[in-house]
Amino acid sequence: MFATAREAARNNAGDIDTITLPSQLLPEKYSFSQLHSELASDETLSKAGVLENFLVLRSCLEHPSRLDREADDENIIDIIASWISKMILPDGSIIARDDIPSDSQSALEQALEVTQRLGLQGLKCLQVLLSFHSPPSPTSGINDPQILLSAITFTSSRDTWTSSSSRSIATNILSVYSHQTEASGFIIDFLLQSVVRPLFSKSKPEAVTSTGRKAMPSSAPPKRYNVSDASDPAQKPWKYTSPYSIPVFEWVVESSSEAIISQSWNLFIPPLLTLLDDPSTPIRSRGLSILSSFLPKFGRKLLEQTGLGEVFDDAVMPTLMFLPSITPADESVQLLGPAYEALFVLGDVRWGVKETGEKGREQVNQQDRMKFYDRVMRKGILMGYMYANEHPSIVELLIGEMGVLVEKMGVNAVKHLKDIIPILSALLTDPFASSPKQLLTVVRTLKSVILACWPRISQPAHRLTILKSLVACWKNIEGSQAGTEDLQRELKGVARLFVKTVEATQVIGTGCDIQGEVGALVEADSGLGELFGL
């Protein structure tokens, strides 16, 4: 019945993404039952065959006047949609494995291209097909949740099989059935229990019990690490055979309410810890981002009751040492940003604020929180800078995170001034600084340091070092207008803030004659007047 259309689709295989078949190549009349039996029922078709059928199916659906409607159309539409959803799910053919020769890269690229095309064309078919379905209501929707699962698979820009077009269509489909996708039954019973949990069942993090709580220390010898398990699809089906499980789990975390997570938190913990422990940089990085979304919904109370605060701390902190030369610089950047973000969120949730009746909100466990931040500063930022200061991209990232951390620590950061000020000074005074962008990050971090640690800034060692650094940086960029406008503006603001801050300490008897020191500099070099506003 569709032989002519199929042949045309086969002859235009390279243009399937951009064309629809002309009406003269399609039958004069056809029903949904015929579309199903002829085009959308064979699950053994090759991927090329599926793409051809998608083109014929979409072309037919875009000529609704030729459709012979029947009483059972709603059911047949559901069946066709289920078939499409199965055909577009990404599989293991697009995943690189250590036990597969590197010369298979071209095969991986071809498989990825086909998967991208299948996803886009399948979603286009779904979108048109579901428009023939009865409008969803609070009591009715899609009978097969697999259809929504497949749409979810294409909602993240982080997945190589997702394009902006497929993501847009998938998001539109899900928005139509939002009452269904927001239901706890869909999220917990279907996605978590039926999809995610079985795929992660063989990955059992030792840090937690089978119920998801923190495991007690064991005197038993550690399990032997089996290298072959690392790339064994049977041990990691979520990674090697069903890679869609990661965006699905990510979507679940982002879409779940606090109530849903509180109700079924133990279903989230094993896959989350598995992602955080994976050696693959993209997967670990994604796990860190998912953790940052998960923690605020999980909440301080559950972190305390389950002991998972320490578990997450132990899972994330080692990532701060994923630095060159052991880890390539570009991969370090991919990991460090999400790792610091996850630790900052963990600190906010674990030692945040709580209701205290008439007293309102107050800080709790301030001492433990500061110990945590001290550890992040020492074992993360300062040690990271010591090992990777030859890599500009990592230095810029670490200095930016230093500014965030100093703001969180407030005046408690003064204990680290002896390490922080020399680092910032070295970067500001370097005549061969890598870029205005990096210097801008350094200047903004210096601003955070001045605001947080102002009681100690006027001490001679710190004051003179900062003054020298501001002047040297200004002189280095003076006359270089191209690309330095923001830097110059920020530098002037910080220099004037610094002077005001030191002046403020004079009021409490710990300052010095900063105006005299600055005045002497301006007298020696009038160009510095613009820097200090004199």
UniProtKB/TrEMBL annotation:
InterPro entries: ARM-like, ARM-type_fold, HEAT_type_2, Tti2. Residues 207-232 are annotated as: Disordered. Gene3D superfamilies: Leucine-rich Repeat Variant. GO terms for cellular component: cytosol; nucleus; TTT Hsp90 cochaperone complex. SUPFAM superfamilies: ARM repeat (SSF48371). Signal peptide: none annotated. HEAT repeats lie at residues 268-306. Belongs to the TTI2 family. PANTHER family: TELO2-INTERACTING PROTEIN 2 (PTHR32226:SF2). This is Uncharacterized protein. It comes from Amorphotheca resinae ATCC 22711.
